[in-house]
Amino acid sequence: MPNPDRKPLLLDFEKPLAELETRIHQIRELAEENSVDVTDEIRKLEARSAQLRQEIFSSLSPMQRLQLARHPRRPSTLDYIQAISDEWIELHGDRRGGDDPALVGGIARIDGRPTVIIGHQKGRDTKDNIARNFGMAAPGGYRKALRLMEHADRFGMPIFTFIDTPGAWAGLEAEQLGQGEAIACNLREMFRLDVPIICTVIGEGGSGGALGIGVGERLLMLEHSVYTVATPEACAAILWKDSAKANLAAEALKITSWDLKNLGVLDQIVPEPIGGAHSNPLKAASILKQALLENLAELTQLTGQQRRELRYQKFRHIGVFTEIAA
């Protein structure tokens, strides 16, 4: 999990809250040094801090939620796996010549039940991000994911996928190795698996790179995560030839969990601690684990054929609209 002792990286909208908390800390230190009782003043300031935190994080714009989804301290796939599983064995390789560190997967035991967990993995710092290609998986990553999902289906283990990527790797080599084919194959094959599949957007869900491990009966999103066909910056550059209009694109794209819930794309919004998952990673993991187990309990009651049909109908209904005659 992210180290809570490390100095936090502040987003612009978090700075007023950080200044108030710094002020509280300074007053408390001065009071201790001079043996002055300022309990009432501290209590009032802490109440104001809690109120301010609530106000800030309950009225974020889509672009601000995207900033939270990309926060360097936001828990990653491996952080959540470490927090929610009793045992974890990472498996490597697509059995076709490579292993992609941008997409990790393996077998975990959660509350005694064997499961297969697959997810995008961003780095924690620049060096780690370069090693993991900023969470942008290559074709080998999606083929590795499919190999693990077929393993899960063969042995009757449910599948949890954690989505956190700006998109699939779009380099020349990725195209040469069949990026489009690898993602398309995953989409097709995930629809035929018998075991429960629960997909969760834990950070940034971008384009086909997200959808390549995003086909399941249930789609969950952490409260401050985003899910979009293209990043707002890319959308703005395409539509207006100006990436500075990303704020406008973020509004139009309907990328937040609340937007997608209203559109019927999303099944459940998983609440985050006030301040975002990075402010209390262990609590965020506990909330996520509970949501996963509750959904798994419901899906376990269905037959494999019922789960496949549920999966199929879920995606058939996305984007359905009704034309009203003039």
Automatic annotation (TrEMBL):
Compartment annotation: Cytoplasm
SUPFAM superfamilies associated with the record: ClpP/crotonase
The EC number(s) this enzyme carries: 2.1.3.15
GO cellular component: acetyl-CoA carboxylase complex
Keyword Cytoplasm: yes
Broad class of where this protein is predominantly found: cytoplasm
GO biological process, one term: malonyl-CoA biosynthetic process
Molecular function, one GO term: acetyl-CoA carboxylase activity
Every CoA carboxyltransferase C-terminal domain range: 44-298
Catalytic activity: N(6)-carboxybiotinyl-L-lysyl-[protein] + acetyl-CoA = N(6)-biotinyl-L-lysyl-[protein] + malonyl-CoA
Pathway(s): Lipid metabolism; malonyl-CoA biosynthesis; malonyl-CoA from acetyl-CoA: step 1/1
Coiled-coil annotated residue ranges, if any: 28-55
Annotated InterPro entries: Acetyl_CoA_COase_a_su (IPR001095), ClpP/crotonase-like_dom_sf (IPR029045), COA_CT_C (IPR011763)
Keywords: ATP-binding, Coiled coil, Cytoplasm, Fatty acid biosynthesis, Fatty acid metabolism, Ligase, Lipid biosynthesis, Lipid metabolism, Nucleotide-binding, Transferase
Alphabetical list of Pfam families matching this protein: ACCA (PF03255)
Source organism, top-level taxon: Bacteria
Quaternary structure, from the entry: Acetyl-CoA carboxylase is a heterohexamer composed of biotin carboxyl carrier protein (AccB), biotin carboxylase (AccC) and two subunits each of ACCase subunit alpha (AccA) and ACCase subunit beta (AccD).
Role noted for this protein: Component of the acetyl coenzyme A carboxylase (ACC) complex. First, biotin carboxylase catalyzes the carboxylation of biotin on its carrier protein (BCCP) and then the CO(2) group is transferred by the carboxyltransferase to acetyl-CoA to form malonyl-CoA.
Family under the similarity heading: Belongs to the AccA family.
Protein name per Swiss-Prot or TrEMBL: Acetyl-coenzyme A carboxylase carboxyl transferase subunit alpha
Native source organism of the sequence: Phormidium nigroviride PCC 7112
Gene: accA
